[in-house]
Amino acid sequence: MATTAPTYPQTAAAEPRGLASWLTTVDHKRIGILYVATAFIFFLLGGVLALLIRLELALPGAQVVTAEQYNRIFGMHGTTMIFLFVIPVLTGLGNYLVPLQIGARDMAFPRLNALSYWLFLFGGLVLYASWLLPEGAPAIGWTGYAPLTNPQYTPYQGVDLWAISLIITGAASTMGAVNFITTILNMRTPSMDLWKMPLFTWSILVTAFMILLATPMLSGGLAMQLADRNLGTDFFVAGTGDPILWQHLFWFYSHPAVYIMILPAMGVISEVIPVFSRKPIFGYRAIVWSTVAIGVLGFSTWAHHMFTTGLPPFLEAFFILNTMIIAVPTGVKMFNWIFTMIGGSLRFDTPMLFSLGFLSMFVIGGITGVYQAILPIDRQVHDTYWVVAHLHYVLFGGSVFGIFAAFYYWLPKVTGWMLDEKLGKVSFWTLFLGFNVTFFPMHILGLLGMPRRYFDYPAERGWTGYNFASTIGAFMIAAGVLIFIINFVVSARRRTPAGDDPWEANTLEWATTSPPPSYNFPRIPNVTSDRPLWDVRQALREANQPTIETGTR
Amino acid sequence: MAESSHEHAEEIHLPPPSPAPIIVAAGMTLALTGILSPLLLMLGVVLLAVGIGIWTFS
Predict the structure, then answer these.
(1) pTM
(2) Chain A positions in Cβ-Cβ contact with residue B25 (cut-off 8 Å)
(3) Number of Cβ within a 10 Å radius of residue A496
(4) Residues A177-223: pLDDT tens digits?
(5) ipTM metric
(6) Could you tell me which residues are beta bridge partners of residue A384?
(7) What is the DSSP letter of A130?
(8) Is B9 on the interface with A (CB under 8 A)?
(9) Is residue A526 helix, strand or coil?
(10) Fewer CB within 10 A of the terminal residue: chain B, N end or C end?
């Protein structure tokens, strides 16, 4: 459907240009673009580190880096992908889309929004500045466990920069969360009550509450870690303090962070699947309540990462139970997405392919997570490659596939031109196959006992074939990402016009021009359901359709 | 979806661009890295003060 273009005020139409306009912008769309572009660059950096890891592990013996360099590389890979890619890229998507989806002109606090972005960028630069120090980047993994981070074991400033970087990016996240909550609760178009809100916006709202509650725990822990390292305190020193305390603080943030990374991706899928199934979403309210349930339960599972630290049995039982219970709302969502597709008129454009990739891969990641909730299994596979496989099926197969679905779905709105479909499909299949070739063998490696984080392994263990396959898969993933970049460049030159609503979508962002003007909408729109554009199309169809009563032909 | 009936009365107010956020962010970052060097701390505090000033009075 070609949505009727509204009349736009000419006086407000002139967009600012030049570098200074980007440095001083407070427009939520530009800030969203800055977030996504910056996070994507960090994704490429983290990807290069991943390739170095896989090159090193392809065969037994030292290949390309030393053991010490390897330790730095895998720590920086994890920190980059989680704190500098997945979380901020989803924040960027939220920044761009939430005001458009709720019919607002901008975020509630535009300057705070810009401050959040710049803090994220500078936090990332602080982390990468650690490579410039004489001792190099921190070699503490992405978890920064005590006592490894105590000054006697890592007496170099890279670890301090790691902690400072995460405090800064955490502050950025917290400010962003305040902004999202205020915007969504106060700036929706007056006719949009909470039950008419798009599911992506719902996912951002719940995620923002999670960030607001979880991030201060990590920031506090990091401040205590810095104090231990620089001021002579002993919060995490065995004996006078407790290294396990760090794990509690870290995982109280970092397990909810899994949902902080997956809920917005689920929001993306909840937008894409009904559009490409030509049906309303099945069970809108069930999806909303499942999102809220995941947000609440996400705070009651953190110690399942710590079963091997010797928790009291009643606590182990508590965390086992909650880890299994949280699979229920996730299962409800799966059910709803599948039933949205059943009976629909399915179109397999690239955003839909990535959404189906998300569904299939996240199910595997979710089920292996439930396995790990079972204590005897957890003790067997803890710190093995099984866990690496599991977390990548959740965070890559889930979050990253969701992010690519979002790129292919919303880039036409952001740019005004379509991405090439053929290259999109090639990119999807290369990523999908590469992902499985990389990470599925890691389940077997884990069951065979290969520990994670190790720089090398003996040839006689029989792990070489699986590792070699995994390395080939990693390069297939790199090829898939490269094809996406080529697609972007080729499509940018070709500039096939997207129109306002190329997918016949449901939500308000598709009611404005592509790209939207700085003020988003010439007039604040009214909505009557959670799928306002569907309603418009339906009304048009009914107006043009002959009826039995009138017999019009 | 339909456009609001208040179309004639509606004016569009958008916040102007501002250098304050990037200056405040740079100041906060440098001030925090001041744990490594007092010079960075001082530079950060100055930038932070300038940024907050611009933020407040612009």
Answers:
(1) 0.93
(2) 115, 118-119, 121-122
(3) 14
(4) 999 999 999 999 999 999 999 999 999 999 999 999 999 999 999 99
(5) 0.90
(6) A451
(7) G
(8) no
(9) strand
(10) C
